[in-house]
């Protein structure tokens, strides 16, 4: 339980404490998609340093990884979008409220029914909330392969809902990415490469996850010119 408490404290350190749905924050500048990152994301210089300190290892097996939470399924990262910080609002709604402009919430609820997304991955503007998904920048399957397989389910649930690893994007681009790592996939909007790499490295470092040699090389190339 002590390990779980530490993980939850880490999770909350990068987010804003909320006292209810009405206090959900919007992004500081939702229109600046090219450099928008979750609060708590390290700058480029720090990301380069942290990347160099990550352990290089071959990816572990996906044996036992089951994201599905239907009856009888393993559900190894817990129910999606749990309210892990106990503020009465699930993490998906928090990310939508943070990343979208012109947010309109459901009456009496924290859920977002309207808003405009300036998608950082593509540079497109999306006005239908139904076409927006929340991406785990470090995919959950990749977390499993690089260390999370050895965690408790409670620790994995906390990590899966860490706001620093969550970004609102177009559903189609999220589906295109799937579980790919940076050596296999980067946002088609090249202007977001630095921000994406900073988020990715920060999450890997925070949770002491490993990287493969090709994964680290791809991140090094991306971060090299970043200011």
From TrEMBL:
Secretion signal, residue range per the UniProt entry: 1-18
Domain of life: Bacteria
Ranges for domain GmrSD restriction endonucleases C-terminal: 91-219
Keywords carried by this UniProt record: Signal
Cross-referenced PROSITE patterns: PROKAR_LIPOPROTEIN (PS51257)
Gene3D superfamilies with a match to the protein in the record: 1.10.30.50
Name of the featured protein: Uncharacterized protein YceK
Lineage: Bacteria, Bacillati, Actinomycetota, Actinomycetes, Pseudonocardiales
């Amino acid at each position: 339980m002590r390990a779980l408490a530490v993980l939850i404290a880490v999770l909350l350190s990068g987010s804003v404490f909320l006292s209810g749905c009405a206090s959900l924050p919007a992004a500081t500048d939702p229109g600046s998609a090219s450099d928008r990152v979750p609060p708590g994301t390290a700058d480029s210089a720090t990301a380069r340093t942290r990347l160099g300190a990550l352990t290089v290892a071959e990816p572990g097996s996906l044996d036992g990884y089951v994201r599905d939470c239907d009856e009888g399924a393993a559900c190894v990262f817990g129910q999606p979008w749990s309210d892990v910080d106990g503020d009465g609002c699930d993490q998906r709604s928090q990310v939508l409220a943070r990343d979208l402009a012109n947010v309109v919430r459901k009456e009496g609820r924290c859920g977002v029914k309207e808003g405009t997304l300036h998608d950082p991955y593509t540079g497109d503007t999306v006005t239908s909330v139904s076409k927006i998904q929340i991406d785990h920048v470090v995919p959950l399957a990749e977390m499993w392969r690089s260390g999370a397989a050895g965690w408790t389910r409670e620790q994995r649930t906390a990590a899966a809902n860490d706001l620093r690893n969550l970004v609102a994007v177009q559903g189609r681009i999220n589906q295109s990415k799937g579980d790919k790592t940076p050596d296999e996939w980067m946002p088609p909007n090249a202007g977001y490469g630095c921000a994406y790499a900073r988020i990715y490295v920060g999450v890997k470092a925070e949770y002491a996850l490993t990287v493969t040699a090709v994964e680290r090389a791809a991140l090094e190339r991306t971060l090299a010119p970043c200011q």
